[in-house]
Design goal:
5-stranded mixed beta sheet; disordered N terminus; two-stranded antiparallel ribbon; 56% helix; 7 strands
């Protein structure tokens, strides 16, 4: 799979000659990399790709993603402009912004929702702006007023099939330390989308976010590894590695960064500066994480890691040892909306905290997601 996504033309041709194309497309869909597969296929000679499969990949799947991209891009522009008019600072993360920063094309990355980063102090105002834009809020204003912190603030426009998630410096709980959101806003850049500009994190901050996000989801999809490789490749001349290193250190996310970089180098042959690669390779916890990922990545998250594997991986995300154990326990006892009644207006309770480990054990105890 890595060769079909990221190799040169000779490597692609050699692999294509041995491909089971139906299995390859199924795997690409599970790993959310169909647009990348379509881009690779266009460079292959006609005789190496069955005509029906070429049409399926390039016409049906890729066109569907392109149409979705246009719709999502238009909605992202509408929302960010509404936030600007409402005086709410916002950064577009992942989705179209990441596709533009990493791949140079909003349609080259699969995504089914929009993710926005706002300050915690603005979340009530941002929620009202989303309601005014025609969305239903899964986390109501009374829960926000009660000080409850979900995994993310989810909004849906069911009539249009649109999903938007707001994140802030308190929902980013997989960062070992509180997200330095003011530094992110100070370093923010703007990327051009459909002839207009949207605010997005600096390339260096987006790279850290992708590595934390990938680790959060156990790097079960090739997409997240491809994102790291794309940001490294596109930013080879502009990427400020000293800022990447410092940003990861400030967030306590050095091992998550190292794990993401090692996976990008091993799976997709991303070219890293020698000093950065040496730092990643010297991180024993990062090396152990990549070995764990290697056991479930080929299946595209099926089956998902069980309880023990999850716990060990979480501890390694923070570097292992006492720091890793503390990080794991903090995540274990940090309730989200799945642990409390989203409609309730009472502050977070001790019961919310206590019942979370039992819910997680029930959810993942059978060895996978339900």
């Amino acid at each position: 799979m890595s060769g079909c996504v990221g190799g040169d033309s000779d490597s692609l041709a050699a692999i294509a000659g041995r491909c089971d194309w139906n299995s390859l497309l199924d795997l690409a869909e599970r790993h959310a990399v169909v647009p990348l597969l379509a881009a690779a296929v266009q460079w292959l000679p006609d005789e190496l790709v069955p005509a029906a499969m070429r049409a399926t990949i390039q016409a049906e799947r890729a066109r569907a993603q392109a149409l979705l991209t246009l719709r999502m891009s238009a909605e992202l522009l509408r929302i960010t402009e509404a936030f600007a008019a409402g005086g709410v600072g916002v950064l577009a993360v992942k989705g179209p912004a990441l596709a533009l920063e990493g791949y140079g094309d909003a349609a080259m990355r699969s995504y089914g929702d929009l993710d926005l980063l706002v300050r915690d102090r603005d979340i009530a105002r941002a929620t009202q702006l989303m309601l005014d834009a025609g969305y239903d809020a899964e986390i109501p204003l009374q829960a926000i007023a009660a000080g409850k912190i979900p995994g993310q603030y989810t909004f849906r426009r069911r009539d249009a099939g649109l999903l938007v998630e707001l994140h802030n410096d308190r929902t980013m709980r997989y960062y070992p330390r509180k997200l330095p959101i003011e530094a992110w806003f100070a370093r923010a850049t703007r990327v051009r989308l459909e002839g207009r500009e949207i605010p997005a994190p600096a390339l260096e901050d987006h790279l850290i976010l992708v590595c934390v996000h990938g680790a959060k989801h156990f790097w079960e999809r090739l997409l997240w590894i491809a994102d790291v490789a794309a940001l490294v490749a596109r930013g080879r001349a502009a990427l400020r590695w000293e800022l990447v290193t410092q940003s990861a250190k400030d967030a306590g996310a050095e091992t998550m960064l190292h794990g993401g970089l090692l996976l990008a180098a091993q799976v997709l042959q991303a070219r890293l500066p020698a000093e950065i690669l040496a730092q990643a390779q010297a991180d024993a916890a990062a090396r152990a994480m990549t070995e764990q990922v290697g056991r479930w990545l080929p299946e595209g998250g099926e089956p998902a890691p069980g309880l023990l594997a999850r716990a060990l991986f979480r501890a390694r995300m923070r570097g292992g040892g006492a720091s890793g154990a503390g990080y794991f326990l903090r995540l274990l006892f940090s309730p989200t909306e799945e642990d409390w009644d989203a409609a309730a207006s009472e502050p977070q309770s001790f019961l919310d905290v206590v019942k979370r480990p039992f819910r997680l054990a029930k959810k993942h105890g059978a060895g996978g997601k339900r």
